UniProtKB/TrEMBL annotation:
Keywords from the UniProt entry: Lyase
Pfam families named among the record's database cross-references: PEP_mutase
Annotated L27 domain residues: 1-41
Transmembrane segments annotated in the record for this chain: none
UniProt entry tagged with the keyword Transmembrane helix: no
Name by which UniProt lists this protein: 2-Methylisocitrate lyase, PEP mutase family
InterPro entries in UniProt: ICL/PEPM (IPR039556), L27_dom (IPR004172), Pyrv/PenolPyrv_kinase-like_dom (IPR015813), Pyrv_kinase-like_dom_sf (IPR040442)
UniProt xrefs under CDD domains: ICL_PEPM
PROSITE patterns membership: L27 (PS51022)
Gene Ontology MF, one: lyase activity
Coiled coil region boundaries: none
Length: 262
């Protein structure tokens, strides 16, 4: 049984990390060994799971195809493997976002990504409000809901000025509904980041670390709260595995700079 007081303390610390002017970076994990490797490295202050990566490791396509209890079970093992606060990527909530958040809090999760999937804005904002009320009822009022809008993810073919306006409108609505931070994934340029921070406020915006976005140092200067890496970390790990296989097939072997991490 997870201690409610411990949960709230970890949630408060995770919230503080987002509100600190120093940029919070989280390299996403997907199982116990990745959680241990990342949490043991100097500079790591919090962990975040990647739903895509967890699903892929278990043989499921991304997009809520993994059963929610299987996702929560994997997240529970990750939480148990570290003393750091853990935020879980819970996609769109698996059909019942407040109940999914309650299950996650029950295994020690103190923050979560939740996609709006571009549902009607009133419906998406109501879901955010319901999730924050559920977290408070579970004794974790500082639960760090990273309310995600898919405006850019689903708006690649649209006029980007209109997409930015949608992201701002939705982000403001999610903050008004009680979310402490808003996640806007996409290959955003500096002008778009500035517009989002101006509209949402400093330390309220979180981004995904993909090629093409401004540098981490610049994002910190602009007032971004957090950068996470989603499935990128698993892709990097799998790239290293593929390179090892290619090296072996070519007559080589293990790279000399390999670290013994487990």
């Amino acid at each position: 049984m997870v201690d409610v007081t411990d949960n709230q303390q970890r949630a408060s610390e995770l919230l503080r990390l987002h509100q600190d002017p120093a940029l919070l970076t989280v390299v996403n994990v997907w199982d116990v060994i990745t959680a241990k490797v990342v949490s043991d490295l100097e500079g790591t202050t919090a962990l975040a799971t990647a739903s895509h990566s967890i699903a892929a490791a278990r043989g499921y396509e991304d997009g809520e195809n993994i059963p929610v209890d299987e996702m929560i079970a994997e997240v529970a093992q990750i939480v148990a493997a570290t003393s750091l606060p853990v935020s879980a990527d819970l996609e769109g909530g698996y059909g019942d976002a407040p109940e999914t958040i309650r299950k996650a809090i029950g295994v020690g999760v103190v923050g979560a990504n939740l996609e709006d999937q571009m549902k009607p804005l009133a419906e998406a904002a109501a879901q955010v409000e319901a999730v924050m009320k559920a977290a408070a009822a579970e004794g974790v009022p500082d639960f760090v809901l990273n309310a995600r809008t898919d405006a850019f993810v689903k708006g690649r073919e649209r006029d980007q000025a209109e997409v930015l306006a949608d992201a701002i409108e939705r982000g403001k609505a999610f903050l008004d509904a009680g979310a402490p931070v808003v996640f806007v994934p996409g290959r955003l340029n500096e002008e778009q980041v500035v517009a989002l921070v101006d509209a949402l406020g400093p330390q309220r915006l979180t981004l995904i670390g993909i090629p093409g976005i401004p540098s981490l140092a610049r994002l910190e200067e602009l007032g971004v709260a957090r950068v996470s890496y989603g499935p990128m970390s698993q892709n990097v790990a799998l790239t290293a595995l593929a390179k090892l296989v290619e090296s072996v097939h070519a007559g080589g072997g293990v790279p000399e700079d390999m670290r013994l991490l487990n």
